[in-house]
Automatic annotation (TrEMBL):
Function: This protein is part of the stalk that links CF(0) to CF(1). It either transmits conformational changes from CF(0) to CF(1) or is implicated in proton conduction.
Gene: atpH
Compartments reported by the entry: Cell membrane; Membrane
Listed name of the protein: ATP synthase subunit delta
Keywords: ATP synthesis, Cell membrane, CF(1), Hydrogen ion transport, Ion transport, Membrane, Transport
Membrane topology label: Peripheral membrane protein
Family, per entry: Belongs to the ATPase delta chain family.
Pfam families for this protein: OSCP
Domain of life: Bacteria
NCBIfam families hit by this protein: ATP_synt_delta, PRK05758.2-2, PRK05758.2-4
Length: 179
């Protein structure tokens, strides 16, 4: 819980800086680069979060890896996280930053769960339908679940649209049991 509160505080700070500089997408892309490297290289995360390693050594590594590759303000933000010993909450910061920027840009994230991967045409059709229903730009995140049997389940925020065979069978079962 504390990590999420800290993450929210720092995410709001970098979000407000991004809005001031009118570089919301650029900052988001840079934070995504850092997150990707964090995910691909767990040693980096372990190194940056290790309290036994001096902050100057960590900052030197960050400069070496990211200088020229990310916005200067984003690099300075990362260096601040090192100074404040907050790199362990970077993933929460990035997650909250994405939520804040999506809200500002009018983007809704739709989690789409299917049995098999949808084709590009099917994804585009689904995106267009969801955009017309929500009135927002839609970003799709795909998931697989073989237990659905067929169809699709879409979750946008707290809204769930179940068009799966499994969901329909469950609804039919409930209706039959009620009678």
């Amino acid at each position: 819980m504390l990590n999420m509160e800290l993450g929210r505080k720092y995410a709001k700070a970098i979000f407000e800086l991004a809005c001031e500089d009118d570089k919301l997408k650029e900052y988001g892309a840079d934070l995504a680069k850092v997150q990707q490297l964090y995910t691909q290289c767990p040693e980096l995360k372990a190194y940056l979060c290790n309290p036994n390693i001096q902050p100057e050594e960590k900052k030197s590594l960050l400069r070496e890896v990211f200088e020229g590759g990310v916005q200067e303000m984003v690099l300075n933000f990362l260096l601040l996280l090192i100074d404040k010993r907050r790199m362990q909450v970077f993933e929460a910061i990035n997650e909250i930053f994405i939520e804040l920027s999506n809200e500002k840009l009018g983007i809704a994230v739709a989690d789409v769960t299917t049995v098999e991967q949808l084709s590009a045409a099917q994804l585009q059709e689904l995106r267009e339908k969801l955009e017309s229903v929500t009135g927002k730009q839609i970003s799709l995140r795909e998931h697989r679940d073989p237990s659905l049997i067929g169809g699709v389940v879409v979750r946008i925020g707290d809204r769930r649209i179940d068009g799966s065979v499994k969901g329909r069978l469950a609804a039919m079962t409930a209706q039959l049991m009620a009678n």
